[in-house]
Amino acid sequence: MPCSSPRPEAPSPTWRASPGARPPGTSWQQPPASTPPPARSCRRSSDREANRSRSSRPTRKEHHLMTRIGILGAGRVGANLADRLASAGHDVILGRRDPKAQSAAPDEALHPHIPCSDQRTAARTADIVINATPGDSALDRLTDLRGELAGKILVDVSNATRDAGGLPGDLCYPGSSLAERLQAALPDTHVVKTLNTMLFMVMTAPDMLATPPTAYVSGDDEHAKKTVTGLLGDLGWQPAWIEDLGDITTARATEAMILVVPHILRRHGFKPFAVSLAR
To answer: How far apart are CA 106 and CA 20, in angstroms?
Structure first.
């Protein structure tokens, strides 16, 4: 967090869920079964060169370098992140378990800048990989990509919980965290945990909330965390809203915050919110 000049001691921080200021969203990760998601699809990687027109993509500030980002998971979380990162000027590829199993949307509905591939290809060809797959099965899935992820930054935005009727239930790794398990299973990969304490729409539009939200960051590698902090800035996060908690073991704290989510959703519905730090 940025430093400022000395000032009188402030009250101790308190936790609270920041209320949303926009119309209700859908759900913590996916919409309820009764609300079908809008049709989405992406370009296959084989169509990439024919359909990409970099000149039409919004440009980033000159001091930023374009990064190839592979996003594993093409649901609402992954697709939402892909759209915003591509708009920021990054080279994005979406990795699906079955790249052929996409909705039959007309060509004009396809994002022209985001190719689609299998998850192994997305991980192998990217500089940074984002895990937007279900947390309860992510450990086995990503461990199988150990070679493709070696030497890279893996950004984990998922929560590993048991299903409780479509809402998050008990933690899969009590006393630990998915991020810690991933780091142990992928020793040659720099795992960074972030963006797992909010509804998916807040990840890419943090200013939609009436109260500034918090993006917590956990990871062992300082350079990797600095890189991820830069990506958060591309998603609209101000430096004052980003809280570096320390090494990867601190991810067990933010992953445990998921336990409050089903209670908030039952009481207030699917309104955008984040579990944030108020000072």
So the answer is: 33
